[in-house]
Write a structure and sequence with these properties.
By secondary structure, the chain is mostly helical. It is built from 4 helices and no strands. It is globular, with a radius of gyration of 10 Å.
């Protein structure tokens, strides 16, 4: 997993914590199932499209995530 990907994952986790959200909320916002988000955050598995959709649906562009 690249450093950029690790940074993205950490920023998403920080955002989840700051907004008192769980992975299920993010999954719903991205239109995917919770295991997809778990795989993304745990192992880095996920397409660039998925990361972009998550960031856009969550307005993470302002946080510099995409």
């Amino acid at each position: 997993m690249s450093q950029q990907h690790q940074k993205w994952i950490q920023l998403v986790k920080d955002k989840l914590n700051s907004e008192v959200m769980i992975q299920t909320h993010l999954a719903r916002a991205c239109g995917v199932k919770k295991p997809t988000i778990s795989e993304l955050l745990k192992y880095g598995n996920g397409s660039d499209r998925l990361k972009t959709e998550c960031a856009m649906s969550w307005a993470l562009t302002k946080a510099g995530l995409i």
